[in-house]
Structures are given as structure tokens and as C-alpha cells.
Amino acid sequence: MTDGKFQFIAALFFIALGAVGHWAFSSLDFGRARDVVVADMNDLGDTAQDISDITDSLVDLTEEIEQNNKPATSTVNPVSDPVINPYQGIIDELQKLIDDQIFMKIGSSGTRVGTVQKFLNIFGSKDVNSGVDNDFGNGTKAKVIAFQKAVKIFADGEPGPQTFQKMIDWLNENQ
Q1: Which one of 8, 98, 99, 148 has the minimum C-beta count within 10 Å?
Q2: What is the pLDDT of residues 126-136, one digit of tens each?
Q3: What's the CA gap between 168 and 102, in Å, rounded?
Q4: Do 161 and 104 contact (CB within 8 A), yes or no?
């Protein structure tokens, strides 16, 4: 090997060694840095290819360090992210009743009546197991009247958009 080549390879070796040393002392993970430096030192040879491999490793390690030293980011913003309401499903169903301008009375039936009955079971928590039969009968009417009186709206036992909105408001306040 000629003197010029040897000096060039030696210079590259010391540059690489200096970069590894600088990285080792500036990294928070001293144990890993020591292991990498020792492993690289054991594998060093007298060829330009060995130095090229070390340089590539340094680039990879530098990128890894930069990635690991980035501050942790959170997707949760406690100021703007709303708290999830456990009653959101029934709130959505009640909102649909408002949007569709639904009114109910004795004899009404179907899943829309079931939505009101589910709310009434939550509102009168001691009656949670009273069931949902999707039929608007005297029992459902009596519970609607009790709710309407509790929220101080006209208590006729025939729920419509105003009553449904009060049900949504109650669920949001009592989550």
C-alpha cells in the first residue's frame, strides 16, 4: 500500500473514530454507544470498504439518535378533545327523532319508542330493568310525564322535539 493511500485511509479512520466518539458522548444511551464503538473497532480493517461501512453505520445511528431524541407527541389535546359521553348512542338516536320531527302518543310503536324507553330507563335508574318493548302504552306515558315535570316543560306525556332535546340535555349533564 502506498504512503498516500495509507495516510488517506488513516485520516478517514480517525475522522470516523472521532465521529463515533462524538456521537457516543453526546448520546443519552452510553451503553449502546460503547457497544457500537467496540463492535466497529473490532471489525476495522485496512481497506476503504471497512471505513465506508463504518461511515454508513454512523449515518444510520445518527438518524436513529435524531429519531429517538424527538420530543414525544400526543394526539390527545385535553383542551379541545371532548370527553366521550357514555350515552352518545342514545343521544344520537334522540337527535334523529328531533331531526325527523317525531311526535309520540299512546299507541305509537317501533324502535323510536324503544329509544324513548331506553332513555326513561336511564332517567329512572331504579327502573333500569323495566324493559324496552317498543310500544307506547300507559306506563311509558306516565314515565314521560314524570320526566317532563322534572325538567319543567309542559307535561302532556306526548314527547316531541322539545322533550327529546331535554332528554339529550339531561344525558349530557348526567354522564
Answers
A1: 99
A2: 655 578 999 99
A3: 15
A4: no
Q: How far apart are CA 97 and CA 102, in angstroms?
A: 5
What's the Rg (C-alpha) of the chain? Answer: 36
Which CATH entry fits the domain spanning 88-173: 1.10.101.10, 1.10.10.10, 3.40.50.300, 2.40.160.60? 1.10.101.10
For the stretch 71-86, pLDDT in tens is 655 555 555 556 688 8
The Cα 88–Cα 172 span in angstroms is 9
As to burial, measured by CB atoms within 10 angstroms (0-12 exposed, 13-18 middle, 19+ buried), residue 161 is middle
The residue count for the chain = 175
Q: Where are the domains of the chain?
A: 3-68, 88-173
Residue with cell 463492535: 39
* CB environment 147-158: b (16+ within 10 A), e (fewer): bbeeeeeeeebb
Could you tell me the three cell numbers for 72? 414525544
